[in-house]
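I would like you to sit down with the record closing this message with an eye to the fold:
=====
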Amino acid sequence: MQNLKVIFEDNHIIVVEKPVNIPSQGDKTGDVDMLTIIKEYLKEKYNKPGNVYLGLVHRLDRPVGGVMVFAKTSKAAGRLSEQVREKVFQKTYLVIVNGKMEQEKGVLEDYLLKNEKNNMSKVVKEGTKNSKFASLDYEVLKYNEDIDLSLLKIDLHTGRHHQIRVQLSSRNHSIYGDQKYGGRGHGKQIALWAYKLKILHPITKEEMVFKSIPEPIGSWKILEGMEL
C-alpha cells in the first residue's frame, strides 16, 4: 500500500498529493493508480466492505506530482466537474524550464493538435482540423544563471493534452527532464508540479485553496529559501 499524503478530507472531498510516476487512474500498464490507492485508504480508514465511491474530477500526467482533489460522493463529483467546465476550478503549476524567458510575465496562446498514435501534441495553425485552443499565463519566480534554468509559476486557462509541455517547448523553453518534448536533463524526472488548486467546496460553496510543494531536492533545489 502506497503511503498516501492527505492534504484535506471531509465527507464530500479528499485532497491529496499525487506522487510522481503514479497514474491518476488505471491504464494499460496495470500499475497501481491514485483512484485505487485512495479507495484502499478509504476502505481501511472507515472499515467499508465492497466498493467505495470515488470520483475522478481532473487528471495529472503520470510523471507529474502535486495536488489533486477527488470526490467522495457523486453529487460532489458532478459539482466539481461543472467547476472544471466553467473555469472556476483553478490549477497553478511550478515548472523549471530551459533558458531565460524574454519577459517576466506573459500569456501563451496556441492551437494544439494531439497525435493519438504517439500520444504527443504540437502547436498548429488556427483552423487546423481537430485542433484546440490553449491558453496559460506564466510568471518567472527565479532564474539561475549558472545552470541557465528558470522557475516559472503557471496558471492554466485550458486543460489541453500536455499543454504546458508543448507550449513551452515550442518556444525553446522545454521543461527540464521532459524527454518527450526535448527537455534537458535526460533521464531526470520532469520538473513540472501541480502546486496549487483553488476550488469552491461542492456543498458549502466556500472558496478553498490547497498547496503542495515539491521537496527541494534534485532539480527542485532551485526552490531553496523561497517563500511560495
Notes: Residues 34-46 form the longest helix (13 residues).
